[in-house]
Amino acid sequence: MRFCSRCGFPMAGAMQLLASGGTLPVYYPPQGEKTISPRRKGVKQGALLMLIGAVLVPLLGILASFAPGRIGTPFEFFTAAAAVLCFVGGPLRMLFAAIFEEGAPAPRFVATQFPHPYSPGVISPPPARVSALPPATVNPAASWRQRPETAEIPQPTSVTDHTTQLLDKSEPEPD
To answer: I need a surface site. Which of 20, 32, 89, 125 has the fewest CB within 10 A?
Structure first.
């Protein structure tokens, strides 16, 4: 996307406007079945995997606590496997989808040709302005006084000049 070098305005809309001869482009959504992009689908799968883990892991943990023969029960193995799969695999699936999978296609702008409002037969154009400049002024510019020559204005004296002159006039010291 290009931006104005002075104000930062995005130029994409202005370029579309110039390319279509002054008519505003109209966005039409793609026709047909709306499908989800692979990137969005992967992020949803990762989030669903984490949500399933938030329900499944505590449930398996409760079942493992009630199982007979507390050491090495299959419920403990499944609880640990579900925790690793859901809470590590879910974010990894979302990360993979965000980095490597293709996103949704960019929307297409299609310029529609509307009749120009001032084309013949539609509406008559407004009357042309006779003068774009204001009327002449009553006071001509020659009657103005000239600006003073600043080199001729005397410079004001310094504030410290008087004090410095007093220091130069010292009284003679007695022997």
So the answer is: 32
Please state the pTM of the whole predicted model.
0.46
Sketch the domain layout of the chain as residue ranges: 36-103
Core vs surface per residue 82-121: b (16+ CB within 10 A) or e: bbeebeeebeebbeebeeeeeeeeeeeeeeeeeeeeeeee
Sequential DSSP letters for 54-111? HHHHHHHHHHHHHSSS-TT-HHHHHHHHHHHHHHHHHHHHHHHHHHHS--PPPPPEEE
Report yes or no: 35 and 45 within 8 Å, Cβ to Cβ: no
- When pLDDT is cut at 50, 70 and 90, the band that residue 138 belongs to is low
Distance of CA 39 to the CA centre of its chain: 23
